[in-house]
Amino acid sequence: MTVTQIIQFPAHDAAATLQAINKAAPEDVIQGTLIQDKSTAQAIVEWQGTSDEIAPDVPSSSSFRIDLARPALGPKGPATAPVVEYVHTFFPVSKVTPEFKKKIEDDFVRFNELFLMIGLVGEMGCTMGWSVDEVNYAGIEGEKAVGFVVIRGWDTMANFEKVMSLDKTREVLSILFGWGAPYKMWHVAREDGARGSL
After folding, report:
1. How far apart are CA 73 and CA 90, in angstroms?
2. Sign of the Cα pseudo-torsion (159, 162, 167, 170, in order)
């Protein structure tokens, strides 16, 4: 089993954090900087083993683990693109039954099929999955949340922005907005040479 971990940390602590990640011997790792907040760096790490696997003693401001449908790293993995879009949608734990997960996944597959038919320029693949851990999230009152995560690669931020400005994109996004769930979206610019062992 492969577990993917997203680790965010202050950019000025990148050397120490990446050294700690590398010491834990991950299967693969890519680092970058958040486009919307250049003071924050991010590593996406793949671990082989159980979902209990996590980088020990890694200083971070945010970290979560995901069980993805297909790897984000490796050949043609979306996280290997120059710009990577992350969307983390939160649902109350009490709603997340196997049937609910299937509905959300089916909705996303339907959205993605329509999205790809728009004729995307610069899109470099995507994967999706569910967070392994329950978390507290401000948009979910009275209980913990579980996240549905999408990772999509782009060749440039300009191409992402161009696609998002299209009327057809807004139309197909209504499938996902129909969930009525809080979400976070951010983008990471991969750093050159920031792949494999560090």
Report:
1. 23
2. positive
If pLDDT is split at 50, 70 and 90, which confidence band does 67 have? Answer: very high
Residue 62 — pLDDT band, cuts 50, 70, 90? confident
Contact 161, 191 (CB under 8 A): no
Q: How many whole angstroms separate alpha carbon 192 and alpha carbon 198?
A: 12
Average pLDDT, the chain: 88
What the chain holds in terms of domains, given with CATH numbers, is 2-195 (3.30.70.100)
Tally the residues of the chain. Answer: 198
Q: Which residues of 98-137 are buried (b: 16+ CB within 10 A; e: fewer)?
A: eeeeeebeeebeebbeebeeeebebbbbbbbbbbbeeeeb
Predicted TM-score of the model (pTM): 0.91
Instruction: Compute the distance between CA of residue 166 and CA of residue 157 in angstroms, rounded to an integer.
Output: 15
CA distance 48 to 29: 12
